[in-house]
Amino acid sequence: MPMSRRLIGAGLIASGSALFALQPLATAQSNAPKSRVPAAEVTGDPVSCINLSQIRSSQVRDDRTIDFILNNGQVYRNELPYQCGGLGFERAFTYSTSLTQLCNVDIITVLQNFGGTLNRGASCGLGEFTPVKLVKKSKDG
User: For position 28, what pLDDT does the model report?
Assistant: First the structure.
């Protein structure tokens, strides 16, 4: 059975040899908080898998947190069981699966950008996918 390969990262998805640019991530504010992981309210029970065809984009938050945004706007937060070296810095990863879903048993590999050339970095296991609603910060506090 052929393996499906996809590259997902900060505003980047690749399938086969074609690259498709998505919306870039919002730039950090000048008084950036210690963590790039925005507060989120859990909206349901964690699930083991999400459908690949439903993933619109992903946002790497740090070495352990990835938010997957689905076509319908739903956000699933994946907190990796362990830190994944370089993920938060590179903010890009790839995965391989023979299924039509990305699951908590799948492995991601950090993509390192060296002078425009992508190299494979650390490989890390995914955690469960928790449906969340990102909490908007008020300007007052």
Answer: 34
Cβ atoms of residues 110 and 88 within 8 Å: no
pLDDT over 90 for what percent of the chain? 67
Residue 12 domain-assigned? yes
pTM above 0.90, yes or no: no
Q: What is the pLDDT of residue 140?
A: 58
Amino acid at 141: G
Q: Which domain holds residue 96?
A: 4-16+37-134
Strands (E) across 4-91 are located at 4-9, 12-15, 18-21, 40-42, 49-51, 55-60, 65-70, 75-79
In a domain, 65, yes or no: yes
Does the residue 139 lie in any domain?
no
Name the β-bridge partners of 39. none
Three-state secondary-structure class, residue 6: strand
Coil, strand or helix: which one is 99?
coil
